[in-house]
Amino acid sequence: MLEQGPPTVNPAHLLTAFSIERARQARGISVPAHSHAEGMLVLVQTGLALVQGNTEMLTMAPGNIGWVPPGIMHEAHWFGHARGTFLYVRADACARLPGHTSAWPLRPLVDALIDRLAGPAGAALSPAYGERLFDILLTELGLCEQSTHTLPMPRERRLRELAVRLLASPDDGSSIETWAERLNMSARTLMRRFRGETGITLGQWRQKVRLLRALELLAGGKPVTDGALAVGYDSPSAFIGSFRATYGVTPSQYFARNA
């Protein structure tokens, strides 16, 4: 297992790159709430990354790039085999990036630019050349449509515990009554509070989670049937129907479009 932590950021440098790779853990990998003076671009290569900003949860499957502005308090959860590339961006260079947490589908040119800036050869780039590449990266991100798929996360401790467990085990078929008993509240209270904090029902939230976790599995090479059953669907056809209703395309069309 390769694991490289974030380096010390030199404020004189426009960009500071690092990468991580961590094995799958049963309940995912959690990063406590924190902020940093720099902005941060995150390229998800494997796993499913969820970043909770001020008001929303970004969902990033493989092939997505996320953005956290300077000074924004955020926490993160990474499910599955976690591998990603990070670029810290000096605060005075963030004006052309959004002022809120954002995500975009990865395009080939953006992927190549990040690889050049954050890869082994990046340290050898002259400052002027690195700035030119970064300028092109910002231009390309500005042309990409931002992702509209976010996952609302509850804040109350018991509801957050439920959410994290379902993210880690999307095939958990426990009833609302069973979960209510585990959380020491009535089923009606659980449903009311969950909807009050997320804006959607627990059933709708579970479906979002299953589709997101299925994206992770399919991106890792699992067949549709295996992915559908692994996240709790009774059949591949039921999964494909839910996927099409959410993303507007079938799983094969989704990955062809984002190739």
UniProtKB/TrEMBL annotation:
Domain of life of the native organism: Bacteria
Pfam families: AraC_binding, HTH_18
InterPro entries hit by this protein: AraC-bd, Homeodomain-like_sf, HTH_AraC, RmlC-like_jellyroll, RmlC_Cupin_sf
Keywords: DNA-binding, Repressor, Transcription, Transcription regulation
Stored SMART domains: HTH_ARAC
Domain HTH araC/xylS-type: 157-257
Protein name: AraC family transcriptional regulator
Species whose genome carries this gene: Bordetella parapertussis (strain Bpp5)
